[in-house]
Design goal:
Aminopeptidase; seven-stranded mixed sheet; seven-stranded antiparallel sheet; 8 helices; alpha+beta; single chain
Length: 442
């Protein structure tokens, strides 16, 4: 009996030892898993020679940097790189060198720069690399702005997304910029694309009659069917949403039905929804009016309004595909035109001088339409900082992480030819928008 009890106690002790070992192993595993192991190459970074970052901003799908540094080591073959232990990704940049002083930008266009959609899973550090006597030298980046870390979700592709955390990290007390890229799925409140059907139930926008007859002072047609721009905008926006969702994108409408009203700058407003939902693109859908009665105005066709300092790559694709698929044309309007169908509307000196409210940070290089300017934050020189009594403050006026915005005037409702095409060809107008985005993102 005593031998049996000893044997039992022995097994109990072994079991206890086994459990303790398991707990220790598990604790070590968890610790290692939660410990960020710094790559070995960070030991070779020259922390006495910082690159000063004076501006950085995500606009749409691209990240842009501007900065300066002294080339103290007389490095040759200077490059801006994203680096991990195994590979380096060279980032195109534009530099100006004066003696040993280097000024640089990743791109002069706000919608180009580092394409965040192209980055793959991993941990990278953004550095300036050069050579001195065949030795690689790395300079780290130093944040000289009022902004801090950035968070970016890639567009949905094959049902998957990446989350990119861009953080001002440190290595042994030295500042260094890290890109942490992980596979994820979009949170419930994050979207790929926002579509804003212009106007709402309280502001119907332009009115037009189906046969070109004038709209009466009471807002009715003497003959023909009355069309409200707000309703036409919504119908097309819903079709674009449907086609984008068929491509597996997650899409948010600023309003869902004809009776909806919404604020401009409040939560989920026409100018804020895209950024409230971390969308990469904001598509503001509108239709135009010439103000000429009779329904046969020479003004008709597509006008696409874009932001300041923008590459035209996506804008050209929008114009090309919409006009081809919807069998329409670009507008003959010449004012503010920069390319067939593409426009940039800035404030005029007269409009600035007539300002009745406290003066804004506004110039003749400031985009006129809030659906572009105020959505784009610092990239598009948004200025609604709350100084206006009749407007809520734009919470994103000073943001450096915003959607890329386009304002579509799809056609002229008071041109009978345009109106008929818009009403009968809605699916093709939408197809033009969606196909352009698909081509651009490929």
């Amino acid at each position: 009996m005593k031998k049996k009890k000893k044997k039992i106690r022995k097994y109990i002790r072994l079991f206890i030892v086994f459990v303790v070992v398991l707990i220790i192993v598990f604790a070590v595993f968890v610790t290692l898993k939660n410990t960020v192991l710094k790559p070995s190459f960070l030991k070779n970074v020259s922390y006495d020679n910082y690159v000063s970052i004076n501006y950085y901003d995500i606009y749409g799908t691209h990240l842009n940097f501007k900065g300066e540094f002294e080339n103290k080591d007389n490095l040759s073959n200077l490059k801006l790189i994203l680096k991990d232990n195994d590979k380096e990704i060279t980032i195109p940049w534009e530099i100006k060198e004066n003696n040993n002083k280097i000024e640089f930008t990743t791109n002069d266009y706000i919608n180009e720069g580092i394409n965040l959609e192209s980055l793959t899973k991993g941990t990278y550090y953004l550095l300036v690399k050069g050579q001195a006597e065949d030795e690689d030298i790395y300079y780290p980046l130093e944040n000289n702005t009022e902004y801090n870390n950035l968070e970016y979700y890639t567009l949905t592709k094959n049902g998957k997304n990446n989350k990119i955390d861009i953080t001002w990290d440190n290595y042994e007390g030295n500042e260094i910029l890290k890109f942490q890229i992980k596979n994820t799925s979009l949170p419930n409140d994050v979207y790929d694309i926002t579509i804003d059907p212009g106007h709402d139930a309280n502001d119907t926008g332009k009115l037009a009659c189906s046969n070109g007859s004038p709209v009466t002072n009471s807002g009715l047609c003497k003959t023909g069917t009355l069309y409200k721009e707000s309703d036409v905008n919504l119908a097309l926006a819903k079709e674009i949403k449907n086609q984008l969702e068929n491509q597996e994108y997650k899409v948010k409408l600023t309003r869902e039905n004809e009776k909806d009203t919404l604020p401009t700058y409040g939560h989920m407003g026409s100018a804020t929804t895209a950024n409230d939902t971390k969308s990469k693109f904001n598509l503001a859908i509108h239709h135009n009016s010439s103000g000429i009665s009779g329904g046969s105005s020479y003004l008709k066709g597509l006008e696409l309004y874009i932001a300041n300092d923008s590459s035209l790559d996506l804008a050209k694709l929008f114009v090309k595909n919409i006009t081809e698929y919807a069998n329409t044309q670009t507008s003959p309007k010449t004012q503010d035109k920069i390319k067939d169908g593409i426009y940039q509307r800035f404030f005029t000196e007269k409009e600035i001088n007539e300002e009745e409210n406290p003066p804004a940070n506004k110039s003749t290089n400031t985009i006129y339409y809030y659906a572009i300017r105020e959505v784009g934050g610092i990239a598009t020189h948004a200025y609604n900082d709350g100084r206006y009594d009749n407007l809520d403050k734009n919470p994103y006026y000073n943001s450096n992480n915003t959607a890329e915005s386009y304002l579509f005037e799809m056609g002229y409702l008071d041109n009978v030819q345009d109106l008929r095409n818009i009403q009968s060809n809605k699916e093709e107008y939408a197809k033009g928008v969606v196909t352009a985005l698909q081509e651009y993102l490929k």
